[in-house]
Write a structure and sequence with these properties.
- The chain has 699 residues and is an alpha+beta fold.
- It has 4 domains: 299 residues, ABC transporter type 1, transmembrane domain (ABC transporter transmembrane region fold, Up-down Bundle), CATH 1.20.1560.10; 102 residues, no CATH class; 216 residues, P-loop containing nucleotide triphosphate hydrolases (Rossmann fold), CATH 3.40.50.300; 37 residues.
- Helix content is 60%, strand content 14%.
- It contains 24 helices and 18 strands.
- The strands form 4 sheets. A 6-stranded antiparallel β-sheet has the order 2-3-1-4-6-5.
- Strand 5 and strand 6 form a beta hairpin.
- The longest helix is centred in the middle third of the chain and has 54 residues.
- The radius of gyration is 43 Å and the shape is elongated.
């Protein structure tokens, strides 16, 4: 099992390949992008609403300037805001720039007191009953903030009723925007989930289709668990990349840009203060990315070792217990588990340093804004609303930085998974199918093998210049010791592999020129180890083929499988447990015979189909074999020579070559390799039986 690894850095290529799956949903992605823009815009606007409410309706203070030529000159650019009297100039607190404020302060033209303006005759009449320091103007009366406590609460409500109405209005707008945010966010999440699930569905389907097209050689060289992980876990790892990283990262980038634009419009001084900490943030992110990458890699590598060890240990638990290796395996796992524990602690250490540092940096920035912003408010450089807005923007600015560690972890995992997925797509170990295949005019079932050779590894021949012919409706068998090449020969016939030399013809056509599906429909295959799929007996017989139930039952009766199936509680709907453990070996074999017949093959292949059969069903198996071999070509592979004595021809294989051929009687008469096999299997057992009988007689 290969170790887990970090992605190699080919991000652009990976994103380009992912985009191939995302491009069919471009319309939905554009809608998501628009929704993200709207959400970011609303989020940026909320502090501005707070500022407007505070400055215009809650704390609408004015500064009083001594009127002279200099103060008039300085405030000329604010003519639309200033209010003139004979002695004074009143101007809103948040209008003057820092430079203007300092020039006025330098000549003592600006007073420390702030004033509030009340408009309308009703307000003037209401204030007459109080002894207040009032300055009357054409636009209304100005009262120092220090005089406000002298006015009763009821009168304050009357005087500021218009302000209260506006505060309520903007509060409703604020709540309305939050509701819109919820609605837009809901649709954005739903649409992003739909897009991501569609992309993952397409990717998973294509990857499975690609795997199914690869040759048997590929599956022999790659553990099944690894391939299952690619199709399941690795593709699932991309879900969070779409839903949590890409969308929210895009939203964060737009929000951060928008925040800085707004902050610079509100106050250049405070914005520069915030901008000054950006290099430090980037430096911290760089360090975190460097060390977190290393920590993440260690966790993934050690986790892969844990999974591999557990998978191997559980699969071989019977051997572990038989050889009393429980303690040894416990110690070995303890070492691997300790490494995984240390790797996780190291990763936690990196994260535990990064997040508090960002917290401290955010607090320092916030403290700096409060200090310098507070001084600016007291000097009249900007309003309280501006300071409150900056505090909100600082909190918004640090939110994506706080989330960076989590998003980085997801990103690393997704990129590593993506790379492994697309590397699997690059596997091209396929059996090629002709674009313009040939088809035989009549399907007779004649097999001709011409001088074929095959090697799994270069220079190591498993099949060496083998030739034979199977005539239509003829039955042949291949025998030989383990490793002689019998099963490999069957794999070549079914074109799981292509021979390195020679050719194989079916009904006069080279199998390389036949359509691959058509070729394999020629054959009915019964294996030594019968594989049972998850599902019921019916599914395991027909395997998604269009076959009527009565036809399926007819096949089952023909091979003696119906007898035991009909006695089951749900009969053909009986669910088979994992691996077919609720059926006997013989019952599984009978089901495999029925499965082979559903294709109505011209050529039947029996790969040691009678091995490991219990005595109670052996007769049924032998009877089924005779029936299904009738009126079709058949090729049998056997170790038990008793099962193939009646075939038309027997081929004896040794070290990848056919060394003898003939009928059972002819081969025995030759007293060659077949005779030796027969002698070892039968004469020895007969002698032991005779010797045992004689010994019992003497006793």
């Amino acid at each position: 099992m290969e170790d887990e690894k970090l992605y190699s850095g080919a991000d652009k290529k990976i994103f380009s390949k992912l985009w191939q799956y995302g491009s069919p949903y471009l319309g939905k992605i554009m809608i998501i992008f628009v929704l993200v823009l709207v959400l970011s815009g609303i989020q940026i606007c909320l502090p501005l609403i707070t500022k407007k409410v505070v400055d215009n309706y809650m704390e609408r203070s004015h500064l009083r300037l001594i009127r002279n030529d200099k103060s008039i000159e300085i405030t000329n650019q604010h003519k639309s805001y200033r209010i003139l009297t004979d002695q004074f100039i009143f101007i809103p607190s948040n209008i003057l720039s820092k430079e203007e404020y300092l020039r006025l302060e330098e000549d003592s033209l600006i007073g420390p007191e702030k004033y509030i303006l009340f408009k309308g005759d009703e307000s003037v009449n209401l204030l007459k009953k109080y002894q207040l320091n009032i300055t009357k103007t054409a636009q209304g009366v100005f009262i120092p903030y220090s005089e406000i406590p002298k006015i009763s609460q009821d009168d304050i409500r009357i005087l500021r009723s218009n302000d209260l109405k506006n505060v309520k209005l903007f509060a409703l707008i604020y709540v309305g925007l939050l509701i819109f945010t919820f609605i837009f966010n809901y649709f954005q999440v739903i649409m992003m989930a739909l897009v991501s699930e569609n992309v993952l569905y397409d990717l998973r389907s294509d990857l499975t289709r690609h795997l199914m097209s690869l040759s048997l050689n590929f599956f022999n060289n790659n553990p099944i668990g690894r391939l299952v992980t690619r199709v399941t876990n690795d593709i699932d790892a991309l879900r969070e990349l779409f839903t949590d990283v890409l969308v929210y990262s895009g939203k964060d980038i737009i929000t951060v840009i928008g925040i800085f634009i707004i902050m610079f419009r509100l106050s250049i001084k405070l914005s520069i203060l915030v901008l000054g900490i950006i290099p430090l943030i980037f430096f911290m992110l760089y360090l975190f990315q460097k060390y977190a990458r290393e920590a993440y890699g260690k966790v993934r590598l050690t986790l892969a070792k844990v999974n591999s060890f557990l998978s191997e240990s559980i699969s071989g638990i019977s051997l572990v217990q038989v050889f009393n290796q429980e303690e040894k395996f416990k110690d070995d796992f303890g070492k691997i588990n300790r490494d995984y524990y240390k790797a996780n602690l190291y990763q936690l250490l990196i994260f535990s340093i990064f997040r508090p540092l960002i917290d401290i940096l955010s607090y320092v920035t916030l403290g700096g804004i409060i200090y310098f912003g507070g001084k600016g408010v007291l000097r009249g450089e900007f309003s309280i609303g501006v300071l409150i807005a900056f505090i909100s923007y600082i909190q918004m600015l640090f939110t994506p930085i706080f989330d960076f560690s989590e998003k980085y972890d997801i990103f690393q995992s997704a990129m590593a998974s993506s790379e492994r997925i697309f590397l699997l797509f690059q596997e091209d170990d396929k059996i090629p199918s002709q674009p313009n295949p040939k088809y035989p005019s009549i399907t007779k079932g004649r097999v001709e093998v011409r001088n074929i050779s095959f090697e799994y590894k270069k220079g190591e021949k498993v099949i060496d210049k083998v030739s034979f012919i199977v005539e239509p409706n003829e039955s042949v068998a291949f025998v030989g010791a383990t490793g002689a090449g019998k099963t490999t020969l069957i794999n070549l016939l079914l074109r799981f592999y292509d021979p390195t030399e020679g050719e194989i013809l079916i009904d006069g056509i080279n199998i390389k020129d036949l359509d691959l599906k058509f070729l394999r429909n020629y054959f009915g295959l019964v294996l030594q180890d019968v594989f049972m799929f998850a599902g019921d007996i019916k599914y395991n017989i027909i395997l998604n083929q269009e076959i009527e139930d009565n036809k399926m039952i007819e096949y089952s009766k023909y091979v003696n499988a119906h007898n035991f199936i009909s006695k089951l509680k749900k009969q053909y709907r009986e669910v088979i447990s994992e691996g077919g453990s609720n059926l006997s070996t013989g019952q599984r074999q009978l089901i495999s015979f029925a499965r082979a017949l559903t294709k109505e093959p011209r050529i039947l292949i029996l790969d040691e189909a009678t091995s490991n059969i219990d005595s109670e069903t052996e007769y049924l198996i032998q009877d089924a074999i005779k029936k299904i071999m009738k009126n079709r070509s058949s090729i049998a592979i056997a170790h038990r020579l008793s099962t193939i004595q009646n075939v038309d021809r027997i081929y004896v294989m040794h070290k990848g070559k056919i060394v003898e051929s003939g009928t059972h009687t002819q081969l025995l008469a030759q007293k060659g390799y077949y005779f030796e096999l027969y002698k070892f299997q039968y004469l020895r057992s007969d002698m032991e039986k005779i010797y045992g009988d004689e010994k019992r007689t003497k006793n």
